[in-house]
Write a structure and sequence with these properties.
Elements (H helix, E strand, L loop, with lengths): L1 H13 L4 H8 E2 L15 E5 L4 H12 L3 E6 L2 H14 L7 E5 L5 H15 L4 E4 L14 H30 L2
Parallel strand pairs: 2-3, 2-5, 3-4
Antiparallel strand pairs: 1-5
Bound molecules: NADP nicotinamide-adenine-dinucleotide phosphate.
């Protein structure tokens, strides 16, 4: 069982063909339409890890479908490259691509960045939490530091991001 899970983790981490299911799993649609039809036209979409890999694929998809995006990742050069590419895909005036260099394990920085993004493009309609990494290996070969870092980035980084957006939804609806 454990071996199968580890094999699956390897397969998932190395496959480039699992985009659809992986994107589905990564999606945190905080305002999920009851029709289940996702309409990105003129919406603000926040994507953590949107500069590479899965997140960049999501960014391309939603920009093609009319969204403005805010992308959070650390590497400024990679963020700027993604922005240049996405800017070319924008189809109308007012459609924007904004990038923020932030480490999602830093909760205060995540809060500050999402406030900035909201001030600039309005409250996001969708938040995709794609930032993360995998260092797959046999259990005994993986050091506790690696497990800790994966929990910090993949789990807590996601919690911080979703928590900011969810609390702002509840504070709006409580007014
Ligand atoms: N690719 C797949 O098929 C697949 C399938 C299933 C699950 N996953 C999981 O999905 C996640 C992303 O995979 P990927 O293949 O898209 O990886 P990737 O190509 O390496 O992209 C990771 C993205 O996350 C950002 N990121 C990483 N650590 C960050 C941090 N501490 N703060 C802010 N941004 C951070 C990276 O930018 P910076 O490095 O510049 O910060 C980059 O934009 C991983 O957890 C992976 O295990 C991937």
């Amino acid at each position: 069982m454990a071996a199968a899970a580890i094999a699956n983790a390897w397969a998932l981490a190395s496959s480039t063909t699992v985009g659809a299911s992986a994107v589905g799993a990564a999606l945190t649609a905080l305002l999920w339409p009851t029709s289940r039809t996702l309409d990105f036209e003129n919406k603000h979409v926040v994507i953590t890890g949107g500069s590479k890999g899965l997140g960049r694929a999501v960014a391309q998809y939603v920009v093609e479908h009319g969204a403005s995006v805010s992308i959070l990742a650390r590497d400024v050069a990679v963020l700027n490259k993604a922005k240049a590419e996405l800017d070319h895909m924008c189809t109308f005036d007012g459609q924007k691509v904004e990038v923020y260099s932030v480490d999602i394990v830093n909760q205060d920085a995540v809060v500050k960045t999402l406030r900035q993004a909201t001030a600039s493009l309005g409250p996001p309609s969708f938040v995709f939490t794609c930032a993360g990494f995998a260092l797959p290996g046999m259990f005994l070969d993986v050091t506790p530091d690696v497990f800790r870092r994966q929990m910090d980035v993949n789990y807590l980084g996601t919690v911080y991001t979703v928590h900011v957006r969810t609390s702002s939804i509840f504070s709006y609806s409580a007014r």
